[in-house]
């Protein structure tokens, strides 16, 4: 977490000013444990939004985290046949976020089965690939207003 935030802070600093980065449009893309970490990082409010795939936190987000995410655009992907992280993890996340997201900008793409054809010990756990190959997520990111 600390290293990721230091990198983002550096990207947004004067030192990196010559880089052609729109600092108000930095998005997170997290898959599996990275999705879980991504949601935590979103609570720092340094990002314009996120795509999270195969979110794996089995608990409930703390009220303060839900409050901090009430205006953050998030698109969640998960497959019902995921054998590594149950789709219930994403179901719970989306329910929490939709219940408090005042701008109604939480999306959920929930597949019935693995879209990449993965089987066995990784069945259903390919939504990171599927999400990254979905052209609409990039259009969605660009359609959102810059982070305030």
TrEMBL record:
Domain Phospholipase/carboxylesterase/thioesterase per the UniProt entry, residue ranges: 16-112
Xref: Pfam families: Abhydrolase_2 (PF02230)
Domain of life per record: Eukaryota
Designated name of the protein: Phospholipase/carboxylesterase/thioesterase domain-containing protein
UniProt-listed Gene3D superfamilies: alpha/beta hydrolase (3.40.50.1820)
InterPro entries in the record: AB_hydrolase_fold, PLipase/COase/thioEstase
GO MF annotation list: hydrolase activity
Annotated organism of origin: Attheya septentrionalis
Matches recorded under SUPFAM superfamilies: alpha/beta-Hydrolases (SSF53474)
């Amino acid at each position: 977490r600390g290293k990721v935030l230091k990198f983002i802070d550096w990207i947004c600093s004067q030192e990196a000013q010559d880089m052609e980065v729109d600092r108000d449009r930095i998005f997170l893309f997290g898959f599996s444990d990275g999705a879980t970490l991504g949601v935590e990082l979103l609570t720092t409010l340094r990002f314009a939004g996120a795509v999270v795939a195969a979110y794996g936190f089995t608990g409930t987000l703390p009220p303060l985290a839900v409050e901090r995410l009430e205006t953050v655009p998030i698109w969640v992907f998960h497959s019902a046949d995921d054998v590594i992280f149950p789709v219930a993890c994403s179901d719970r996340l989306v329910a929490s976020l939709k219940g408090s997201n005042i701008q109604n900008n939480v999306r959920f793409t929930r597949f019935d089965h693995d879209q990449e054809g993965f089987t066995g010990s990784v069945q259903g756990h390919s939504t990171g690939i599927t999400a990254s190959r979905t052209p609409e997520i990039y259009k969605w990111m660009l359609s959102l207003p810059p982070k305030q």
